[in-house]
Protein backbone atom coordinates (compact mmCIF):
# COMPACT_ATOMS: atom_id res chain seq x y z
CA UNK A 1 0.00 0.00 0.00
CA UNK A 2 2.66 2.50 1.05
CA UNK A 3 4.93 1.39 -1.78
CA UNK A 4 2.17 1.83 -4.39
CA UNK A 5 1.37 5.28 -3.04
CA UNK A 6 4.94 6.57 -3.43
CA UNK A 7 5.31 4.87 -6.79
CA UNK A 8 2.17 6.61 -8.04
CA UNK A 9 3.38 9.97 -6.71
CA UNK A 10 6.69 9.53 -8.53
CA UNK A 11 5.04 8.84 -11.88
CA UNK A 12 2.52 11.67 -11.39
CA UNK A 13 5.42 14.04 -10.88
CA UNK A 14 7.06 12.83 -14.09
CA UNK A 15 3.78 13.51 -15.91
CA UNK A 16 3.69 16.95 -14.34
CA UNK A 17 7.18 17.56 -15.72
CA UNK A 18 5.81 17.06 -19.22
CA UNK A 19 3.02 19.58 -18.55
CA UNK A 20 5.56 22.11 -17.27
CA UNK A 21 7.72 21.55 -20.35
CA UNK A 22 4.73 22.08 -22.63
CA UNK A 23 3.82 25.27 -20.78
CA UNK A 24 7.40 26.47 -21.15
CA UNK A 25 7.30 25.87 -24.90
CA UNK A 26 4.13 27.93 -25.28
CA UNK A 27 5.63 30.72 -23.21
CA UNK A 28 8.76 30.75 -25.37
CA UNK A 29 6.61 30.94 -28.50
CA UNK A 30 4.77 33.99 -27.18
CA UNK A 31 8.10 35.50 -26.13
CA UNK A 32 9.43 35.16 -29.68
CA UNK A 33 6.31 36.85 -31.07
CA UNK A 34 6.83 39.73 -28.64
CA UNK A 35 10.45 40.05 -29.75
CA UNK A 36 9.26 40.33 -33.35
CA UNK A 37 6.71 43.00 -32.45
CA UNK A 38 9.35 44.85 -30.45
CA UNK A 39 11.73 44.83 -33.41
CA UNK A 40 8.92 46.07 -35.67
CA UNK A 41 8.37 49.03 -33.32
CA UNK A 42 12.12 49.69 -33.34
CA UNK A 43 12.05 49.70 -37.13
CA UNK A 44 9.21 52.24 -37.05
CA UNK A 45 11.12 54.29 -34.52
CA UNK A 46 14.18 54.46 -36.79
CA UNK A 47 12.05 55.78 -39.66
CA UNK A 48 10.96 58.82 -37.68
CA UNK A 49 12.58 62.19 -38.23
CA UNK A 50 11.53 63.52 -34.84
CA UNK A 51 11.51 61.18 -31.85
CA UNK A 52 9.56 62.17 -28.77
CA UNK A 53 10.58 61.22 -25.25
CA UNK A 54 7.36 59.20 -24.75
CA UNK A 55 8.30 56.96 -27.67
CA UNK A 56 11.71 56.21 -26.24
CA UNK A 57 10.31 55.69 -22.73
CA UNK A 58 7.61 53.27 -23.88
CA UNK A 59 9.97 51.39 -26.16
CA UNK A 60 12.55 51.18 -23.36
CA UNK A 61 9.95 49.79 -20.94
CA UNK A 62 8.97 47.22 -23.56
CA UNK A 63 12.57 46.14 -24.05
CA UNK A 64 13.16 46.02 -20.30
CA UNK A 65 10.09 43.79 -19.91
CA UNK A 66 11.47 41.45 -22.56
CA UNK A 67 14.84 41.27 -20.82
CA UNK A 68 13.21 40.49 -17.48
CA UNK A 69 11.04 37.86 -19.14
CA UNK A 70 14.11 36.34 -20.81
CA UNK A 71 15.83 36.01 -17.44
CA UNK A 72 12.79 34.28 -15.95
CA UNK A 73 12.65 31.95 -18.97
CA UNK A 74 16.35 31.12 -18.82
CA UNK A 75 16.10 29.74 -15.29
CA UNK A 76 13.69 26.87 -16.13
CA UNK A 77 15.51 26.16 -19.38
CA UNK A 78 18.80 25.54 -17.62
CA UNK A 79 17.40 24.24 -14.35
CA UNK A 80 18.59 21.06 -12.73
CA UNK A 81 17.70 17.85 -14.44
CA UNK A 82 14.97 15.54 -13.20
CA UNK A 83 16.00 12.88 -10.73
CA UNK A 84 15.16 9.38 -11.93
CA UNK A 85 15.19 5.99 -10.28
CA UNK A 86 18.45 4.04 -10.35
CA UNK A 87 19.13 1.92 -13.40
CA UNK A 88 17.82 -1.67 -13.34
CA UNK A 89 21.35 -3.06 -13.05
CA UNK A 90 21.95 -0.96 -9.93
CA UNK A 91 18.67 -2.15 -8.41
CA UNK A 92 19.53 -5.76 -9.19
CA UNK A 93 23.00 -5.36 -7.65
CA UNK A 94 21.46 -3.90 -4.51
CA UNK A 95 19.03 -6.82 -4.34
CA UNK A 96 21.92 -9.29 -4.65
CA UNK A 97 23.77 -7.45 -1.90
CA UNK A 98 20.73 -7.83 0.35
CA UNK A 99 20.51 -11.55 -0.44
CA UNK A 100 24.15 -12.07 0.48
CA UNK A 101 23.76 -9.91 3.61
CA UNK A 102 20.76 -11.88 4.92
CA UNK A 103 21.88 -15.35 3.76
CA UNK A 104 22.43 -16.65 7.32
CA UNK A 105 19.09 -15.40 8.67
CA UNK A 106 16.15 -17.70 9.31
CA UNK A 107 13.54 -15.68 7.39
CA UNK A 108 15.92 -14.36 4.80
CA UNK A 109 13.33 -14.11 1.97
CA UNK A 110 11.05 -11.90 4.03
CA UNK A 111 13.94 -9.78 5.33
CA UNK A 112 15.32 -9.27 1.81
CA UNK A 113 11.91 -8.34 0.40
CA UNK A 114 11.22 -5.91 3.25
CA UNK A 115 14.65 -4.28 3.00
CA UNK A 116 14.41 -4.04 -0.79
CA UNK A 117 10.93 -2.54 -0.64
CA UNK A 118 12.09 -0.03 1.99
CA UNK A 119 14.99 0.91 -0.28
CA UNK A 120 12.61 1.42 -3.21
CA UNK A 121 10.26 3.52 -1.06
CA UNK A 122 13.15 5.71 0.09
CA UNK A 123 14.28 6.08 -3.52
CA UNK A 124 10.78 6.97 -4.71
CA UNK A 125 10.39 9.48 -1.89
CA UNK A 126 13.70 11.24 -2.55
CA UNK A 127 13.17 11.35 -6.33
CA UNK A 128 9.58 12.56 -6.00
CA UNK A 129 10.51 15.26 -3.51
CA UNK A 130 13.34 16.51 -5.72
CA UNK A 131 11.15 16.50 -8.84
CA UNK A 132 8.27 18.23 -7.04
CA UNK A 133 10.52 21.06 -5.91
CA UNK A 134 12.03 21.31 -9.38
CA UNK A 135 8.62 21.44 -11.09
CA UNK A 136 7.33 24.01 -8.59
CA UNK A 137 10.39 26.16 -9.18
CA UNK A 138 9.99 25.95 -12.96
CA UNK A 139 6.29 26.81 -12.70
CA UNK A 140 7.07 29.82 -10.55
CA UNK A 141 9.66 31.13 -13.02
CA UNK A 142 7.33 30.57 -15.98
CA UNK A 143 4.57 32.46 -14.15
CA UNK A 144 6.95 35.33 -13.41
CA UNK A 145 7.94 35.38 -17.08
CA UNK A 146 4.27 35.49 -18.07
CA UNK A 147 3.69 38.47 -15.78
CA UNK A 148 6.69 40.24 -17.30
CA UNK A 149 5.40 39.49 -20.81
CA UNK A 150 1.93 40.85 -19.97
CA UNK A 151 3.46 44.07 -18.70
CA UNK A 152 5.72 44.14 -21.76
CA UNK A 153 2.68 43.67 -24.02
CA UNK A 154 0.92 46.65 -22.43
CA UNK A 155 3.97 48.86 -22.97
CA UNK A 156 4.39 47.48 -26.48
CA UNK A 157 0.80 48.35 -27.34
CA UNK A 158 1.22 51.84 -25.92
CA UNK A 159 4.50 52.27 -27.79
CA UNK A 160 2.87 51.15 -31.02
CA UNK A 161 -0.05 53.56 -30.47
CA UNK A 162 2.43 56.43 -30.04
CA UNK A 163 4.94 55.43 -32.73
CA UNK A 164 2.71 54.10 -35.54
CA UNK A 165 0.79 57.32 -36.30
CA UNK A 166 4.01 59.32 -36.37
CA UNK A 167 5.61 56.72 -38.63
CA UNK A 168 2.70 56.67 -41.07
CA UNK A 169 3.87 58.49 -44.15
CA UNK A 170 1.35 59.87 -46.61
CA UNK A 171 3.71 59.00 -49.49
CA UNK A 172 3.38 55.31 -48.70
CA UNK A 173 -0.41 55.32 -49.12
CA UNK A 174 -1.61 54.28 -52.58
CA UNK A 175 -5.03 54.77 -54.07
CA UNK A 176 -6.47 51.68 -55.75
CA UNK A 177 -9.01 52.09 -58.51
CA UNK A 178 -11.20 49.19 -59.56
CA UNK A 179 -11.57 48.90 -63.32
CA UNK A 180 -14.36 46.79 -64.73
CA UNK A 181 -14.12 45.88 -68.41
CA UNK A 182 -11.46 48.51 -68.98
CA UNK A 183 -13.63 51.31 -67.62
CA UNK A 184 -13.41 53.04 -64.28
CA UNK A 185 -16.17 52.12 -61.84
CA UNK A 186 -17.42 54.94 -59.63
CA UNK A 187 -19.38 53.83 -56.63
Structure description:
This protein has 187 residues and is mostly helical. The protein has one domain (2-84, 128-184). The chain is built from four helices and two strands; from the N terminus they run ααααββ. The protein has helices spanning 2-47, 53-77, 88-101, 108-167, and strands at 179-180, 183-184. The chain is elongated, with a radius of gyration of 30 Å. 18% of the residues are buried. The model has no long low-confidence stretch (mean pLDDT 87).
Name its key features.
187 residues; mainly alpha; two-stranded antiparallel sheet; elongated
Secondary structure elements and their pairing?
Elements: H1 2-47, H2 53-77, H3 88-101, H4 108-167, E1 179-180, E2 183-184
Antiparallel strand pairs: 1-2
Helix pairs in contact: 1-2, 1-4, 2-4, 3-4
First-last Cα distance: 81 Å
Class from secondary-structure proportions: mainly alpha
Mean pLDDT across the residues is 87
Task: Count up the domains.
Answer: 1
Q: Low-confidence parts, pLDDT < 50 over ≥5 residues?
A: none
What is the approximate shape?
elongated
Radius of gyration (CA) equals 30 Å
How many helices does DSSP assign?
4
Q: Beta-sheet strand percentage?
A: under 5%
DSSP, total strands? 2
Secondary-structure element pattern, one letter each: HHHHEE
Helix content: over 70%
Strands of the biggest beta sheet: in what spatial order?
A: 1-2
- Biggest sheet descriptor: 2 strands, antiparallel
Amino acid sequence: MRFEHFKELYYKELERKEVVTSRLQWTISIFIILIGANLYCLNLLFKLEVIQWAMILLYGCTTLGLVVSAVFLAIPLWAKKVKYLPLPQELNNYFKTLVSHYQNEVEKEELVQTAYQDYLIDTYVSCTEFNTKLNDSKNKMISMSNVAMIICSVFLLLAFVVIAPAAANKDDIYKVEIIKGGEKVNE
